[in-house]
Sequence to fold (478 residues):
Amino acid sequence: VIYLILEKKPGDPLIRQIYEQLRNMILKGELRSGAKLPSSRAMAQHFNVSRNTVNEAYEMLIAEGYLDGVQRLGIFVARGAVLIPKPRKTTADEQYSAFAKEKIDEDAICFHSGTPAADLFPRSRWNRLAYAAFREAPESALGYGDPRGRVELREALAAYLHRRRGIVCSADNIIITTGAKQAISLTAKCLLEQGREVYIEDPTNRNVWKIFGYHTQSLYPIPVDGEGIIPSLLPAERNPTLIFCTPSHQFPLGGILSIQRRLELLSYAERKNCHIVEDDYDSEFRYRGLPVSSMQSLDPDRVIYIGTFSKILFPSLRLGYVVLPSPFLERFAECKMLGDHHTNAVNQLTLSRFLENGDLERHIARMKRIYRRRRDHLISCLRDAFGGRVTILGEGSGMHLTAGFRGVAFTPELLSALNRKGVIASAVWEHTANGSDHADKLILGYANLIPERIEEGIGRIKTVIDPLLHTHQDLSFL
Ligand SMILES: Cc1ncc(COP(=O)(O)O)c(C=O)c1O
Fold:
């Protein structure tokens, strides 16, 4: 006798219920190989379902090899369909815990850096352009395309980058990527092999350490001060393949690399015959004067220039780019093709219209005004709350600043205490090579916070760290 539990439920057809329950019994060995199943007529009568329903479930199981139908004799459980259970090492939930940790409590005030104000994105304008781009796209745009990206976007981008950042390139030097992280990954994949050395300015976004770390174990940190990477500390005796830096707005300390340091870095790269990876992730938002020019403009053959639309538009768009010296183009394009073939073509076509119509520059100008006000408000809240006990770094551009609190160490325990008070922020040490330097500094992203939330957030931070500032006490009690 076969025991099945069948229930009439919307969205769960009886055929599927019969199929799944029989399949599970076979996989667990509860229905042994060679056992004969009741006829479809008997099953249908017993479970009060139609004979067709049973037949269809039997047919699915026969098609997948769980059952054998033998003419005139009946239906039998097939051989070799028993699954020997293995203990699960970890559940998907446990595996995913690293990401789950990042789940954000909606009420918490999140000072994560690099998050643009999503509510101010001109959605209807983008929507109109996206609709027109899709409607008017040639049929070829719906097929597999050029791995380097749509030529319309690459051309518009080459003109924009030349105008805004002094980049020297043609559309042919550009590969459109699925964000800057993919551009960094492609660079590592194409140019590194085990044993090759990468210099990385320290601190640097921790994801950058991880990306390069997948490709080589030879990561060599180069210290950074308030003006960015320190070229005099580049070792004379080593031979790197790549030097990673963020010269327009050092992440996370915010320094802007002077022309003298840029030239020193380039002449070192020339001597070592290596390349510089310039990550220009948020330089469009410069609050004093014009945007700083790129390093790429000083030596287009030595510099791999990486940019993203995650900050000026929105992160889930997943659009970025890499501007390459010509000898690297073929390899990068092939690597991109073997990965995801190319980045979403409809988004690329929409963005090319957004660029050509001047929408992008208008959007940047508007956001810059808003972000500047938010930044000013954050600075004044920090000053009001902490006076001379806070040091502010990197406020000249971008979407975050760094606040140093002398005598405080933002240990994981202290960051959790902030979390419990409803504040999410990361500390600079989380982005350092040794995981301990710059312990007194917090990264405060302000672009996505209205002034009231900024004020409330700083108030919450104050309640947690004020006692520590006054007493300089050891934090181990937390
Ligand atoms: C230094 C740096 N580069 C690049 C990015 C952007 O990455 P993506 O374009 O993949 O969103 C970030 C994101 O926060 C960053 O901090």
